[in-house]
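Colleagues,

For the teaching module next term, I've prepared a clean inverse folding example: a structure given as tokens, and then the sequence designed for it. I'd like students to try predicting residues themselves before seeing the answer, so please don't circulate the second half yet.
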């Protein structure tokens, strides 16, 4: 597991998420721990290193 810090696309606060480095491509939805809005997260790992990270709002 790897902790990754990023900015919430709704409230712009810095938050973190734990990512499983053994899963190469991931798409998940997590609620912001500050404003509770849902964030779509897309992640890719290459040889155990984070190669892509995107956090976006779900366009309510």
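(Answer key — instructors only)
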């Amino acid at each position: 597991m790897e902790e990754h810090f990023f900015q919430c696309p709704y409230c712009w606060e810095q938050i973190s998420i734990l990512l499983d480095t053994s899963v190469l491509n991931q798409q998940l939805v997590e609620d912001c721990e500050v404003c509770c809005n849902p964030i779509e997260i897309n992640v890719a790992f290459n040889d155990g290193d984070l190669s892509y990270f995107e956090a976006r709002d779900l366009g309510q």
